[in-house]
Amino acid sequence: MAINNSEATERVIARANQLSRSWKHYYLGIEHFFAAACQLDRSLADALEDVGVPLSELEEGILEFVPSSDDEPMWDISEKLPETPRYSRLMKTMVPEEAESEQALRVEPKHVITAILREGRSVPCRFLISRDVDLLALRDSIRGVRRPEAPKSSGGGGGFFSRGGDKNMTADEP
User: Fold this and answer.
1) Single pTM value for the model
2) Contact predicate 82/25, CB 8 Å
3) Per-residue pLDDT tens digits for 37-51
4) Secondary structure, 3-state, 20-51
């Protein structure tokens, strides 16, 4: 069953397009959606601030990874900006999974953000990892999931990788 975007998600997509144009990127990517969602949804911005990353630093970090262009776009951007392959793939596969996992009737901005954090390889995730943010803990915080505290170890392994990328979530080997 196809799950449609909520009005809030459509507003975030419109804002993401505006951000892309203002940053002179001329494409719609995960970094634009992530920043736009945090601008428009205070709870997402608060979750970032709780891990020590104010919204202004997120935006600066994104622009360090993907600087603004001085060039004019080589394609027609009068209507819709082209989507990056990663953004398209995420929106078609992982985002509906996130919404369905919460039995949601519509895709909300938090579903897109939690899918981005689960995927773990995009520009916003690379920036957050550079700031030592635990992507899975941030994802759980946004989803409202409380993770049990990991038992204290006397060293040498144990636990799970917690920096994101669902393909890398394997136990440490001693």
Assistant:
1) 0.77
2) no
3) 999 999 999 999 999
4) HHHCCCCCECHHHHHHHHHHHCHHHHHHHHHC
What would the two tokens of residue 167 be? 């393909």
DSSP string, 108-133: -HHHHHHHHHHH--SHHHHHHHHTT-
| Spatial distance between the Cα atoms of 19 and 66, rounded to a whole number of angstroms | 13
Question: What is the pLDDT, as a whole number, of residue 102?
Answer: 92
Residue 75 to residues 4, 30, 80: CA-CA distances in angstroms? Answer: 28, 20, 11
* DSSP state at residue 155: S
pLDDT at 162: 43
Nearest-10 Cα torsion for 55, 100, 144, 165: -60
pLDDT at 6: 95
Mean of the per-residue pLDDT values for the chain? 83
Q: What span, in angstroms and rounded, lies between the C-alpha atoms of 123 and 67?
A: 12
Query: Span 103-111, mean pLDDT?
Result: 95
